[in-house]
Structure formats: C-alpha cells, structure tokens
Prior knowledge:
Blueprint lengths: L16 E4 L2 E4 L5 H17 L11 E2 L2 E2 L3 E5 L2 E3 L4 E3 L1 E2 L2 E2 L5 H14 L4 H4 L9 E7 L5 E4 L10 E7 L1 E6 L10 E5 L4 E4 L8 E7 L13 E7 L4
Antiparallel strand pairs: 1-2, 2-15, 3-4, 5-10, 6-7, 8-9, 10-17, 11-16, 12-15, 12-17, 13-14, 13-16
Amino acid sequence: MPTLFDAPGARFPRPSREVASGVVHLPDWLPLGDQAALVGEARGIARSVAGTPLAMTRPQLRSGQMSVHILSLGQHWATNPYRYVTSVDGVPVPPIPASFHDLAARALADAAALSPSLAAWSGKYRAEAALVNYYAPESTMGMHQDANELSEAPVISLSIGDTGIFRLGNTENRNRPWVDVPLLSGDLIIFGGEHRRAFHGVPRIEADTAPEGCGLDRGRINITIRQVTL
C-alpha cells in the first residue's frame, strides 16, 4: 500500500502553530491565485519606479551590499543611517496597495486565535511600511533585528515562490538558540510580543521549489508589513 513517502508531490500536514511566544506560522495561508496577483501588483510597482531613486535594488549596508533586492512601499527603508523616509531625492515613496492593507488585517485576525499578544493588535494595526524583498536562489539574509520602528506592533511576513528557511533567534544577540522554520509559497509568519525584536534571518533558499501558478518561475518574494509609528 502506498505510503506518504511514495506519493508523488505528497506533503506532510503542517498545522498552524505558535512557534514561540508572539510568533505564529500559518502554512498555506494564501491561495496560488492570490499569490500570483500580489506578485503581479508588486512587479508593476517596481517597473513604475525603475530608473528612479526608489528603484528596486540591493541596499548597501555598513557590513556590505545585501544579496536581496528590496522595493519600499509606504515608507522607504533607508540605510547609513538606518531610518524610514517618505521620499528620496524628491521622489515620493509609492503608497501601500489596498491589497497589502487587507492582507495585514486578515493575517492578524487569523493569527489572533493562536497568540494573545498578536490578538491585541487585531483591528487596530496600521500598515505604514511594506518591503517587497526578492531572493534569487543564491540569496541569503543575515541575522538582524527589526529595530527601526518606534512601534512594537508585530511584523507580518508573507512568502511567495521558492521555499525560504526562516531562522528565528533570541532577543539578545545573533547566537543560538534559534529555530528554523521552512516557509513555503503562501506561508505567513507573524512575529510580535516577546519576540518582536528577536534576531532573525534567512540562511538559505531551496531552489526550484516554487509551485506553478504562484507568479514566480524562480526565487522567492517576501512581503513584510510594519507599523512604524506609535
């Protein structure tokens, strides 16, 4: 009799869960058609700002140039020094699309049942800055804190395309302990509460795992949404 290991394309059940206090993983949260629509919308915005100071690019950090391409919406995440700005060289940052606002509201409502600290933000969260991060198959992101926001509101993160390994660490430094969570296309992870300022990163992308119909042939898009102000 065929087993789960024998079935082509079979996947183990991945229940929704609170990975750590204030960190909720919702697997297969967004259907393929909706994923493709978001990718198309983000691609259109990226094309509209190509050739401007807000073009999707690999930011230069103090530690070197990132391997991830980033597009800012709502507010631009600037480096050297790190801060959020509403325009660059007189060019206003594109607004956050209504679909992203809707995504944030639904995400928190769905995560609320699994985490009291996230439930506290449901219905009053303000999506003020969004980053569309494109990871080529060889891209990574080092361990870092999301520490440029005044607000302690949770960070909402949606994955589309190739599977990315999300590494969640502690709030003190980049060292262990940490936990690795594979994020497949359509997966959502939200971190807030005790782990809002936890170090986290993406140590690798699993190439050629993007499902057909997600809007990407290769690589991974990660859409992160933040409330910046108090």
